[in-house]
Specification:
326 residues, alpha/beta, D-Maltodextrin-Binding Protein, domain 2, 5-stranded mixed beta sheet, 4-stranded mixed beta sheet, 11 strands, binds beta-D-glucopyranuronic acid, DctP_fam
């Protein structure tokens, strides 16, 4: 979809839904690229239920799942403009606009999901959420995105050299283009919704993602080799349009923030459960899973990526503090 078309489609869809609106005074429209039932979609519904309860049904949330409002890069712009009120997105597509989001998007910055939780639940996470304000957005909460690994349709990747010459789709962030080049492969940034057909038709050889996305997108049907190199543990984020947020009373703004935070533990449980279900489904489909891989060369290959992106004192300080977090 062209930019203008997707913008118009989002407005039309939102207008149509307003007709069938509930008794709520304000219905916040929320975007998600994932299908109904996916942990992020369900978490935002939980957030909405909490918000309705806290405000006596004054504020509600309607989740437009399955990229009904467009692909992430476009929906982010629409959220900045106030056409979309809430948006659940990966941090990746923010990298080119909000520099602080690059840091938790760096390959191998987190030692484990637990380390990522410890960082993002603390002052560093709060600082990164606050950075959205300067870009017409309000950062509300971080969600889980597991760890992302490479999959492709050509061959099993058992060592870094096997990646040479393969073409992988990455999220629309320069950082991820360089990350893929650093391991000797080629990167093509493209919207998530175009990946399946691009692998099928051979425009790309593969992509990289976590278990639930690899499964729910159906990419495992067209890319039969999944190598658990776990190069990214990039958090996902729930943001609100600053213009929608500014229309609310101070009490309602607090209720929005509290409801978002309340959805985080629920999301983490749903995520842990879905990771297992997705892994089982992918294994049952006969995908070859390569678990025995030495990550050290991958980690070492990322040094130039850090040098290129961790440029200012502020960003260097964030990296140091993340590494020092238990
Ligand atoms: C998924 C994220 C989603 C991204 C997608 C992608 O949940 O927000 O759009 O990856 O690769 O894991 O674009």
């Amino acid at each position: 979809m062209t930019h203008l078309k997707s913008f118009t489609a989002a407005i039309a869809l939102i207008a149509a839904s307003a007709v069938s609106a509930t008794a709520c005074e304000v219905t916040l429209r929320s975007s998600d690229t994932h299908p109904d039932g996916y942990p992020t979609v369900e978490a935002v519904k939980v957030m909405g239920a909490e918000l309705a309860k806290a405000t006596g049904d004054k504020l509600c949330v309607e989740v437009f799942h399955s990229a009904q409002l467009g692909q992430e890069k476009d929906t982010i712009e629409q959220t900045q403009f106030g056409v979309i009120d809430l948006n659940r997105v990966s941090l990746g597509p923010f990298n080119n606009i909000i520099e602080e989001t690059k840091i938790p998007s760096l390959p191998y910055i987190f030692r484990s999901v637990e380390h990522m939780h410890n960082v993002m639940d603390g002052p560093i996470g709060a600082e990164i959420l606050a950075a959205f304000e300067a870009h017409d957005l309000v950062g509300l909460a971080f969600y889980d995105g597991g760890s992302r690994s490479f999959y492709n349709k050509e061959r099993p990747i058992t060592k870094m050299a096997d990646l040479e010459g393969l073409k992988f789709r990455v999220m629309q962030s320069d950082l991820f283009v360089d990350m893929v080049s650093a391991v000797g492969a080629n990167a093509t940034p493209m919207p998530y919704g175009e990946v399946y057909s691009s692998i099928q038709t051979g425009v790309i050889d593969g992509a990289e993602n976590n278990w639930p996305s690899f499964e729910s997108s159906g990419h495992y049907e067209v890319a039969g080799y999944y190598t658990l190199d776990q190069h990214l543990i990039v958090p996902e984020v729930l943001v609100m349009s600053k213009s929608s947020y500014d229309k609310l009373s101070a009490d309602d703004q607090m209720a929005v923030r509290a409801a978002a935070k309340a959805s985080v533990p629920v999301m983490r449980d749903l995520w842990a459960e879905r990771e297992k279900v997705s892994e089982a489904k992918v294994r049952a489909a006969g995908v070859e899973i390569i678990t025995d891989i030495d990550k050290t060369p991958f980690i070492e290959a990322m040094v130039p990526v850090y040098e290129k992106y961790v440029t200012t004192d502020k960003l260097k300080d964030l990296v140091t503090r993340i590494q020092a977090t238990e």
